[in-house]
Amino acid sequence: MISFKQARDVLNYAKDFHHQLSRYYKTLNDKTDQVRVKMLLDYLAIHEEKLEKNIEHIEENISAKVLGTWFKYTLCEDLRKELSSMIIRIDDMSVEEIIRMAIQLDDCLIRIYKKIAQNSDIPEIRDIFTNLSELEDHEKRRFVMDSTRMYDM
Hints:
By secondary structure, this protein is mostly helical. The chain is built from six helices and two strands. Strands 1-2 form a two-stranded antiparallel sheet.
């Protein structure tokens, strides 16, 4: 379902998503005894906190006029579909499965940010969401490199 939202609503949703995902990774961490899985979940919790802070920083530098801009919004629905396709069974999940799940979530956000940027007629909105997609992609690449190093330990 597509609805119309302001830019600030989308940014708040994205911040909240990263916040909730960080908390979720911490909860999963408490439920496992696997050392590598614990390390990875710790890393992911910090990764999500960093992304939340990055969005806060971006938001602080956007004018009230731009934050109040209305446009079509699909973030919530796309993320719901992605999340509902993932079943977390921490008891028997491997490091590889967790990495794959985290990459899927990052890819979903990148697609959403790109879609918002491409569908916006407003240059500032296009720039904001292009920057967010690049930031998310950069952090995903860093995660992949770091998790590869962790896995090789």
